[in-house]
Amino acid sequence: MTIKVGVIGAGNIGADHVTRLASQVVGSAVAAVFDVDAARAEQVAAGAGAVARSSALEVIEDPGVDAVLIASPGELHAEQVLACIAAGKPVLCEKPLATTAADCLKVLDAEVAAGRRWIQVGFMRRYDPGYQVVKNTIDDGTVGEALLAHMVHRNATVPGSFTSEMAMTDSVIHEIDTTRWLFGQEIVRTTVVATKPSPLAAAHLRDPQIVLLELAGGGVVTVEVFVTCQYGYDVRCEVVGSTGVVALENPTANALVTGGRRIEAVPADWRVRFGATYLTELQEWITGLRAGVVGGPSAWDGYAATAVAESAVASLETGEPVAVGLVERPGLYT
Ligand code: ISE
Predict the structure, then answer these.
(1) pLDDT value of residue 252
(2) From CA 184, how far away is CA 218, in angstroms rounded?
(3) pLDDT tens-digit profile of 228-277?
(4) From the CB of 278, is ligand 1 less than 6 Å away?
(5) What's the pLDDT score for residue 317?
(6) N or C end of the chain: which has fewer CB within 10 A?
(7) Dihedral of alpha carbons 307, 310, 314, 316, sign
(8) So what's the pLDDT on residue 251?
(9) 170 CA to middle of ligand 1, Å?
(10) How would you label 161-194 residue by residue, b for 16+ Cβ within 10 Å and e otherwise?
(11) What is the pLDDT of residue 253?
(12) Interval between CA 271 and ligand 1 midpoint (Å)
């Protein structure tokens, strides 16, 4: 059985997903593509043997579409995911699930009312072999009790439209999800600390920033987010346990050793660093759908991550620690 996917949003990440679904993932094909840029949609659809549609709703309601992948701008996600639930179609929604916790709650309510899971949120790091080693090492007790973690999230550069708040909602949201997943606990408070700004960051941008995430069980995670570090994409994670430490370094593909030096390549961006991870994520989504199962990061995970990111934005604005208030977790997500 082939799962015919409709893709909404054919920018970089959407187009990458179309290629994966059409030619690399086992058991999927791309049936329809929509993008606000009609010429782009035509071009991406043609490369995958799919049809370009003229609206997101046309993709969702297309009887030839079995499942939907949403890679549109975040502010459109809630409405599009709700339309997928109404149409009874499973959906893989790129992060964020929605840009406000209030909108995420509307999605949760709709999925709970439907009585089953339709939604997977695109927190792809959970599918990365390096992060999985960290998770397994915590879970099997090798480093004792996990107490705290240090995380680093650096981008070489960001577009001029990128804001200090987006460092939380677009970038650190990955560390927020990773923290919740690794520790198996909710984050209860965030504090954002500005450091001396880089002279190379745009004037409107506070960069770098340090984010403190406090967990329900007392653990603390520090995240350095530096989105104009210039040298490449660098994502790291070190978990400190009561008897040891497990670390995920920035992986390197090649190293050149010459003249008494070792020179290693740094990935250019997340599309390079997490390319294989995205493929695993999509393969597991499709394999699950072929077996009638929706798994992976849930709408609850999407809601909790957005709520924490919202509190980080509030802390950035006030300079104070901000508590995260989550609703009670519905039974569908336990
Ligand atoms: C981007 O939107 C992503 O999702 C990347 O994974 C992240 O590393 C980057 O910082 C974001 O801007």
Answers:
(1) 79
(2) 12
(3) 999 999 999 999 999 999 999 998 778 899 999 999 999 999 999 999 99
(4) no
(5) 95
(6) C
(7) positive
(8) 84
(9) 6
(10) ebebbbbbbbbbbbbbbbbbbbbeebbbbbbbee
(11) 74
(12) 9
Burial class of residue 87, CB neighbours in 10 A (0-12, 13-18, 19+): middle
Q: Is 281 in the pocket of ligand 1 (CB under 6 A)?
A: no
Q: Return d(Cα 170, Cα 70) in angstroms, integer.
A: 16
Task: Name the residue of 123, 128, 155 to mutate for ligand 1: max ligand atoms within 8 A of Cβ.
Answer: 155
Which atom of ligand 1 lies closest to the CA of 94?
A: 4
Domains of the chain: 3-123+275-297 (3.40.50.720), 126-269+304-333 (3.30.360.10)
For residue 320, the tally of other CB atoms under 10 A from its CB is 9
Decide: 270 in ligand 1 pocket, CB within 6 A: yes
Low-confidence ranges of the chain (pLDDT < 50): none
CB 28 near ligand 1, within 6 Å:
no
Whether this prediction's pTM lies above 0.85 is answered by yes
Alpha helices by DSSP H, listed for 54-192, are 56-61, 77-87, 101-114, 129-139, 164-166, 173-183
Using only C-alpha atoms, the chain has a radius of gyration, in whole angstroms, of 20
Cβ pair 123, 282 in contact under 8 A: no
